[in-house]
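Onboarding guide, step 5: your first structure request.
Type a short instruction followed by the sequence, for example:

Predict the 3D structure of this protein.
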Amino acid sequence: MLEFTEEQFKETKDKGEKFYKSVGEVYCPYFTEKILFSSAGLEHLKFKRRDKARSEQDQYMRFKLIHLAPEIIKLSHT
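The system replies with structure tokens like these:
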């Protein structure tokens, strides 16, 4: 189980959101089109459904690793 403080969670979430909003779009060779980093995608990081938020642990890991997403998308060939 991953442990973090409320301050670490807030800092990671804020940093992840700022990064996510800065990406815009990334070309994906697999789909042969650009993938948009839209507000709907950001909501997906925070919520399972419109009325059900993801757990703080789930959100923390998603925001902690979001910086890897553009590179993974760029390298997706299969």
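Each response can be followed by summary notes, for example: The beta strands are 25-28, 33-36, 47-49, 52-53.
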